[in-house]
Every structure is written in structure tokens, then in C-alpha cells.
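Bench log. Compound arrived from synthesis this morning; before running ITC I wanted a structural hypothesis for how zinc ion sits in the protein. Inputs:
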Amino acid sequence: MRRSLGWVIFGSALGALFVAERRRPLRRQKEPGPERVGRNLTIGLLAGATTAASEFPIVAPVQRLAERGRLGLLRLLPLPRVLRVVLGFLLLDYTLYLWHRMNHHAPLLWRFHAVHHLDLDLDTTTGLRFHFGELAMAAGFRALQILLLGVDRDTLRLWQQMLVVSVVFHHSNLELPIEVEERLNAILVTPRMHGIHHSTRADETDSNYSSLLSCWDRLHGSLRLDVPQEQVIIGVAGFSTPDEVTLERSLLLPFEEDSRLRPSIGAALRPASA
Ligand SMILES: [Zn+2]
């Protein structure tokens, strides 16, 4: 019941954003037709099916194992429940920041994550467009988070639900009033911030890796807010036309040798003061 209510809320939020971003677009779209939306939804359906399919054999058993064996960092510390939830939430979000960076730097991970970046435009449907291979590997990473961090299933569910809404929101092409966006961005990842991460320019892509809370980019000095959206060219360098990013090309890309796919060799992880 609770789960289906969650899906209704998510579906309504997605629908409302989809309509709103077409009324108040932040960036001009290169592929405004329905073909791109259909392509992204198809890739998204495969991604959703992969996530659902990996829950049963991978994520759920690991959660049971960690609970039974009292495994993970947070279970070792004598903390009150509320602190355990807050810390668990922050650690899940921070480790996702690190995982996203790895997706750009490790060649194998980048082959799959590049499919998400290949989209020539950015809107709510890009937030669903992840290669099924990336999400299969992400399920393995999720299992590792559960085992090492020791987060309980309620904290994990709360964070995952907020993350899904955040991912759709920050990929959206909705032009928010700048002062509203600046206020939101003090805490959350927003559309202008994430738009810079989807640039074809390496120095711009190599920024804004956070997915829910924006503080991780501030912490590591990887935050960039200084590029106007009209200057951002969305996509991956070398793939600039719709023929190069068709459904078939997108799904096959990770399995082919393509010299245009170069992982980021950007700055090493560092604290903001370094
Ligand atoms: Zn990325």
C-alpha cells in the first residue's frame, strides 16, 4: 500500500514537471520531437526493470544478511535512533557522490554512464535514461553501501525515494526564478547546477557530481555555478547529431570500442580548502 502510494506521488510529480518544463523551458531543445522522449522512456523502462530484478537476488538478501549479522559502521556505534537515521542518510548520499565520480573516471563504468550523458537535451526523461548495465552495477554498489554503512531498510527507503524525486527534478528543463533556485541550491542539486555537469566540455562535466544534497560538491571543491545555461552544450563530445544517439546506438555503445568515449581525467578528489 505504502509502496503504491509512493509510486502515485512519484508519477504525479514526474507528470507535473514534464508539463511545467515545456511551459517554462530553461534551455532550448535540439530534439524537441516525441522520438527522443520515446527513446528515453524505453531506456528508462529497461533500467527500471533491471533495478526491480536486482532487488530480489542482490539488495534484499544483503540487507537481511547485514541485519542478522549486525554488520556495518552504524551498527557498531551506540547511537540514538534519530542520529542513526540522519547519519545513514548523509553517508548514503555522500557515497553516491563518490560512486558518480567513479562513473566518470573508471573506463568501464564510463562506457555505461556515458549513455545517460549522450542525450542531446536535458529534461525529466533524461532522469530516467540510464543504461541497464549501469543500474545492474549500481545494484552491486547499493549492496556494498548496505554492508559497509550498516543503514537500516527504512533509512535506505527514505533516501531512495527522495533521491528518485531529486534526480527527475535536477534533470528537468524547468526555468525556476533565479532567486528560488539559489535558495534551493544551498541544500539541494538544482536544474542549472546539474545542467553544467551534462556539458560536452570536460572541465564543466567534471563538476557537480552530487545527486541529492549539494554539499558534497562544496566539500570537495567540485561545485560550478558560473556557466550560463545558454552557453552549455548538452551531450558527450563527438556525438552531436540525433543519428549518433539513436536507441540502438545508445544501448550498444558500452559494448563497442569507440575512441570518442574518453573517461574524465579531471582533478583528483580533494577537500575544498586544498
Ligand atoms: Zn554524470
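What the model suggests: The chain has a mean pLDDT of 92. The pocket of zinc ion is lined by residues 100, 104, 113, 117, 197 (CB under 6 Å).
ITC booked for Thursday regardless.
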